[in-house]
Design goal:
Oligomer: single chain
Order of helices and strands: HEHEHHEHEEEHEHEHEE
Strand order of the largest sheet: 5-4-3-8-6-7
Structural class: alpha+beta
Shape: globular
Distance between the termini: 30 Å
Number of strands: 10
Radius of gyration: 20 Å
CATH architecture of the domain at 108-215: 2-Layer Sandwich
């Protein structure tokens, strides 16, 4: 990541930080930046999620957005980075927060697994479970935007129809399938190695994996994509947004107000977005 992209602040879990310290840290962030967008995975412990809501409630702040995303760990990290990139553009905090839902649809996230017997995040057939016990079996799994599962050598995963970069994080599995087969099939523009997130083995049900995420890397493309969506004003909290739900108070737009234009898919082979 270039040095222009702001760093992210880590909000600690309740078992490692008392509530008073968490309140103090959040207060400092609000004083320094005005708004805080806290993006967290749906897989975090319930106690951690409750802590986030408690902090916002105690501070009585409408300037804290709590965004829960149901993405694999590496894809979540990618989305956080994209929001950090957008934060230095001329978008309001409300636009950046509500852009998370939009951008998540453009992240193709999956993993190469040696077994799917403990995979509960993606639908797995009984046949696939049985094949997991065959020595040497490997599976390609896509969790987002639509779940897919293939046995390596018997099919291919549906990839993006626009130019992407592929982040690859290696676990305890030795294979070149992601870089030698998947990347060319998806016509990825470039590859980048990433550290395997600590939560990945639990999320995917095995430590023998290679996680990957294809995403839009160019900030100019992200900017055009977000700019192409009609902006609204939340009638509940008054914050600007895109899409059909406020990123800060989670209030949905009334049906008559929901005039958001859905962006068309990006075209493969082009580095710019063509809005509606």
């Amino acid at each position: 990541m270039d040095h222009h992209t702001p760093t992210a602040a880590l909000l600690q879990a309740p078992d490692v930080q008392p509530l008073d310290a968490a309140l103090s840290d959040m207060t400092v962030l609000l004083e320094q930046h005005g708004y805080v967008i806290a993006l967290y995975p749906a897989s975090i412990p319930l106690a951690h999620e409750r802590r986030l809501h408690t902090v916002r409630s105690v501070l009585e702040s409408s300037r804290i957005a709590l965004l829960k995303v149901d993405l694999p760990p590496l894809a979540t990290a990618v989305l956080v980075r994209q929001l950090r990139q957008l934060s230095i553009c001329d978008f309001s905090a409300g636009i950046v927060a509500s852009a998370a839902r939009l951008l998540s649809h453009y992240i193709y996230a999956g993993a190469l697994l040696n077994s799917v017997t403990r995979l509960d995040r993606v639908p797995v057939s009984l046949t696939s479970h049985a094949k997991s016990w065959v020595p040497g079996s490997q599976f390609g799994v896509l969790a987002n935007p639509d779940p897919e599962l293939i046995r390596i050598g018997t099919g291919r995963l549906t990839g993006p129809e626009f130019v992407t970069r592929l982040a690859v994080a290696k676990g305890q599995l030795q294979s070149d399938w992601v870089t030698a087969t998947l990347a060319p099939a998806w016509q990825t523009q470039s590859l980048e190695e990433a550290r395997l997130p600590a939560d990945s083995p639990v999320w995917w049900g095995t430590g023998r994996l290679i996680e990957f995420a294809a995403f839009l890397p160019d900030i100019s493309v992200l900017y055009q994509l977000v700019s192409s969506v009609r902006r609204e004003v939340c009638t509940w909290c008054g914050i600007e947004l895109i899409g059909d739900r406020c990123g800060f108070c989670s209030a949905p737009l009334a049906a008559a107000e929901n005039r958001t234009h859905e962006p068309r898919a990006l075209s493969r082979g082009t580095s710019s977005y063509r809005g509606p």
